[in-house]
Sequence to fold (64 residues):
Amino acid sequence: MKLLYNIVLTLVIIGALNWLLIGLFKFDLVASIFGAMSIFSRIIYTLVGISGIISIGLYTKINE
Fold:
């Protein structure tokens, strides 16, 4: 589970940094690397979203 949580945390950080770039500079890093809504960018967005859902479960880990 530790490996999964490390991957999830990394993807959540990537997603947060991408949203920071979008908010400040209107620059979508994922789209610029993989193409706007290409299959690869959609996979990245999906993985980041799933990681966000999984990270909800980390609240229980924090309170232990």
Summary: The longest helix spans residues 2-25.
